[in-house]
Structures are given as structure tokens and as C-alpha cells.
Predict the structure of Guanine deaminase.
Amino acid sequence: MSARSHRSPRAYRGRLLTPAAAPAGGSAVRFLDDALLVVDEAGLIAQALPFAPGAFRGPVLDLRPAVLMPGFIDAHIHFPQTRIIGSASGALLDWLERSVFPEEARFRDDGYAALVAAEFTARLRASGTTTCVVFSSSCPGATDQLFRALLHAGLRGIAGLTLMDQNCPEALCVPRDEAIPAARDLVQRWHGEGHGLLEFAITPRFAPSCSRPLMEAAARLAQDHDLLVQTHVAETPAEAEATRREHPWARDYLDVYDRVGLLTGRTLLAHSIHLSSREWDRIAETGSSVVHCPDSNFFLGSGRMRLGDARARAVPVALGSDVGAGRSFDMRRSMSSAFDNAVCLGDRLTPADLFVVATQGTADAVGLGRVIGSLDAGKEADFIAVRFPEHVLAESEVLNHLVFASETAVVQRAFVRGKPIYP
């Protein structure tokens, strides 16, 4: 039996909703009114099939009338902003100065970081998020506490030390010759832990707060260890102007990351609102992905990300809560905000579109599409059980309530690799 094996095969009974192979130009889901989800001893999905008496001879946990679905994936969230959700202190740069940076400075205290890390992981699990891509603080000790909490919670997590060596408060500024060795130590300690559930990500905060030498060193570290890169780009016009002032050698915001070696097929670019056609084309050429954070964009008044620009170029799109500018850990809030964002642009997304983006689409964008994102046989059994009101029966009703009436749909259980992590 492998190191990941933890129990004999078992099955879960309930209704079932999962992304399915989509027809050209559309999103498709598979819905079963009564199903068995069979999980093998290694935590892999063996089968997802209509229920029939005697179809499985092992133990069956009956979760009806709950709906079994893939766990949500949050591709952009800030651990040190857990306690400042709702801090309406201005547009992006003012909000960072007034609300974010003072709170992030508190994470120099390992005890405080550990306390908030426990809150952070508890809120993710209760929201049905089984995978998260996380910005930590610039403090190595706090980042260590975050990884400890993710491991203890049983979550799948990709996280990184936030890199900043200029244009930030002294308490958060970490010079390159300290930050890169600290990041390297964290890679050695945590990358691949939890039998692969945990990964380290190279995490420059954004171009204005990072010097060129720091970004170049970070890119080399990412290349040396094949690490995911996450950062922000083109969230507001003021941020883009600050980038041009700090890095006049680049032709535009995206070109900063491109020239220092941070733009690769393993790069996640959060927000991506105010991009030129040239920048969108270059994102597509490099195989990078973007993370749509609509709730945060509304809250800070940052603008509207045009999904059509990404889709026209087949750029993978992930969905992120962006807590704490995002106002909820619940990815269903992000799905609903993505719908509103599209309406503002004269576009239209269906509940099925939004569900697929929050699961399989985000898994694809972060490089985990063959591992999680749907309830297909052979994938790891990261799934949740959601209970709906008794009158919500049909596929369309389930999707509508999931996306637009999330307060009526309660996350009852969550599993990662078949192991229960919530409640």
C-alpha cells in the first residue's frame, strides 16, 4: 500500500454535479439525481455512476439529499488579510497603505500568524474550498505558520512568501539577499509536503514593490525548482503608472515580468483588467494564465476584467476570491460577482459556465487539471457535499441556487483525497 493510502475503498451516495467534456464553445456539466462516488484506498476516484443496489459491496456513506461536487479552488487569496475583510479605505493603492500594510506588519509575530492561519484554514474548509493559491506576508516565519496550518487542515495549498524590497513600509521590506535565501529554505521545507498536497509559489507582490534584481533572482529560483509564479498585474491605472515610473526600461506593465523571466507557462496573473491587446497576445504566447477576481474589483472600484479578451486567445482563466478586498471566502460569491461583471460589459455567463470556471477551469489554469477539478475516474477525490432546500431538485435549479442563492446551499462536508477535512 502506498504512503498516500489511508483506508479501504468506500463509496458516497448522493446527487452528483460535475464538469463534463464541453461541446465546442460551451460549458457542460453532468448531473445525476442518485449517484455513487467510489473512492479507492489511495484517495482516487474509482467511479462516479448512477446508483444501483449492489453496485458497490463496500461501505457506503449516504449523504442524500446533498449534492456531491468537486471542491472549489480559490486561485488568488491573501492569508494576512483574513481579518481586514470589509476595510473600505479607498482605491487599491490607498487601501494598501491604510488597511493592508499595517495589518501585514503584525505577521512578524509568529504567534499572531499562527492564530490567523488557523482562522484562515477553518474559513476555507467551511466554504467548500479544498484548494487555495495563497499570498503569505513578506515574513518567512508567518509563511512557515501558514504551511503548518494548511498541512494540519488537510487542505491542498500553493503558497509563497510575498516579495517586496522597495516602495513599501520598512516593516514589510525584505532585501533580495534575505528574501531569496528565505524563499529557498521554504521551498526545501514545504514544497511537496503532505505527499504533494503542498507547493511553494514564487510570489512577487507586484512590480512597483519589487526591484529588477529581486524579480530576476525570483525567476531563477522558480526555474530551478519548476515552481508556480503568482503576482498582480494591471489592477488599476494608478498601479500601472507606478510600474512605468519604477521600471522605465519596460514597454508596458506585463513586459516587466516578461523581461525578468517571470512570465512562463506556470504564471498566474491576478486581475488583468487594464491590459493592452499586445499584453493579452503575449500572455497567450507564453502560456500564462489569468485570475479573475470580480468581487475585489467591485469593492475597490478597480474596473471590469474582460473575459472575452482571454477567451478569444484561449488564455486559461481561474477564479479568485482575493480576500481581503474580496468580501467572502465563499467562491460562490465570486461566481455571482463574475456574472455581474459580465453583465456590466454586455456579456452573459450561465450558472454552468461559472461552476465550471470555479472547478475544472481553475484547476486547468493552476496546472492541476489532470489531478482535480471534476469527479472523473482517476482524479484525486477532492469533493464537497452541499445541501439544498427540499424543493431544489432539477439540474438548473441546483446550479441557480449554487451560484445566485448560496445562503440556501449549505456546505455539509468536504474531502481531500477522500479524507474528510470538514466538519
